[in-house]
Write a structure and sequence with these properties.
alpha/beta; Aspartate Aminotransferase, domain 1; Aspartate Aminotransferase, domain 2; seven-stranded mixed beta sheet; four-stranded mixed beta sheet; disordered C terminus
């Protein structure tokens, strides 16, 4: 990572801006960040916050910041896994909801922001997650923050995977919770923490069904056994699993056939459902408790009827068009096959595929070349991940066609070969399809 010069001749990289900058006064922090950004703004920076000028689909139109003109791109950077964000039935049901309910409710759920649509969605999500009741939040972030801060006190212990989402970590801070992390998916370390730690209150185990950066699964078949044997409360953040995993899209619990062993399910509407919002599903008693003790629920306005109707319609599509989930998994299998044919080994069961960038390749230069080739990809850079783990995160949709996936792999191979001399045709098992 390049250094920059700040006042007084000091050198700073991005890590310095994020960490050391906090030690400075506000005006100095702002100036430091501004200097860093001004030094870094170039054609590569325009690959972030790209303006999309169309509905989210397998192909989108963006306003290219480099030319200020519209152009088409294949979208591999959206969590719209099932294509529900632009599904005609979903859009029609949203229009009906607008005509009946308008566009908002103007208040929190405990006062005036609770409609028959909200209750209907709570009931259907409870059935989806094999739970008694559900609580709706304005975002997935608020769901995790409200859940942890509403349930956990200083006598409890929260044991969580080191890859836990920032929202869970912020919930822990708000609750001032006693917490311990275990190495990612390390079952032995989880067992040791459970066995070796005594607490006066409850033990909570928090994992994610599908981890968003790598696309791998928590081994819920093993984790549920541990939580059951230790009398711990198991919380599964299934943001990226809901609607995607399992034969019927009920989530990672269905995938492992352990739905009835999960105490608390968390999910979002910003992934498979293509909108915004979050939810917690659990026992009726626990949900009733959270309605009054989850501050991010009590003090936030309710989701608008447009969003609620979109999720309800999405649930209908999932039930009535099971081929969407099947097509999504077939796309995952086909892309994994294509990547293996150019020497990139991927073993993914989810529509999230991370391709680690060799350190010999400049990830920003590669990102620019993908952009120029009409491939919309998300580059995950240091310090979000270690330099050795910088990656392109591919998000697949049920609507992607075979030729889309072939085009993606063709571009990836070309860019890798162009920027890494050690990546040659000797790495190839088969020749990728000709487009």
């Amino acid at each position: 990572m390049e250094n920059i010069t700040y006042r007084g001749g000091e050198n700073f990289n991005l890590r310095d801006v994020l960490i050391n900058g906090r030690k400075r006064k506000l005006n100095e922090r702002v100036a430091l960040f501004g200097t860093f950004i001004s030094e870094k703004v170039d054609k590569i920076e325009s690959l972030y916050s790209r303006v999309v000028n169309s509905a989210c689909d397998r192909e989108v139109e963006i306003i290219d910041a480099m030319t200020n003109t519209p152009r088409k791109m294949l979208m591999f950077g959206s969590n719209n896994y099932l294509g529900l964000a632009n599904h005609p039935y979903v859009k029609e049901k949203v229009k009906e909801a607008i005509n009946r309910y308008g566009v908002g409710v103007g208040g929190p759920p405990l006062l005036n922001g609770y409609t028959s649509l909200h209750r209907e969605l709570e009931e259907k999500l409870s059935a989806l997650k094999s739970q008694e009741d559900t609580l709706l939040f304005s975002s997935g972030y608020n769901a995790n923050v409200g859940l942890i801060s509403g349930l956990v006190d200083k006598n409890d212990l929260v044991i969580h995977d080191e890859y836990s989402h920032a929202s869970l970590c912020d919930g822990l801070k708000l609750a001032r919770a006693n917490s311990k992390s275990f190495k990612h998916n390390n079952i032995d370390e989880l067992k040791n923490i459970i066995t070796d730690t005594e607490v006066m209150g409850e033990k909570f185990i928090c994992v994610e069904g599908v981890y968003s950066m790598d696309g791998d699964l928590a081994p819920l078949d093993e984790i549920t056994q541990i939580s059951n044997a230790s009398n711990s409360i198991l919380i599964v953040d299934d943001a990226h699993g809901t609607g995607v995993m399992g034969k019927h899209g009920r989530g990672t619990g269905e995938h492992f056939n352990v739905e009835n062993l999960i105490d608390i399910n968390m999910g979002t509407f910003s992934k498979a459902f293509g909108v915004v919002g979050g939810f917690i599903s659990a026992s009726k008693a626990l949900i009733s408790y959270l309605r009054f003790f989850a501050r991010s629920y009590m003090f936030s306005a309710s989701l608008p009827p447009t969003v609620i109707s979109a999720v309800l319609a999405g649930l209908e599509v999932i039930q009535n068009e099971p081929e969407r989930i099947e097509k999504l998994h077939k796309n995952t299998e086909y892309l994994s096959l294509l990547l293996s044919e150019i020497g990139i080994k991927i073993n993914s069961q989810t529509p999230i595929i991370s391709v680690i960038v060799p350190q010999r390749i400049d990830i920003r230069k590669a990102a620019y070349e993908f952009h120029q080739a009409g491939i919309f990809l998300n580059a995950i850079e240091y310090p979000a991940v270690p330099i050795s783990k910088q990656r392109f995160r591919i998000s697949l949709m049920a609507d992607h066609r075979k030729e889309d996936l072939e085009r993606l792999v063709e571009c990836l191979f070309t860019i890798w070969h162009k920027n890494d001399n050690s990546y040659s045709t000797q790495n190839i098992i088969h020749t990728i399809p000709t487009i």
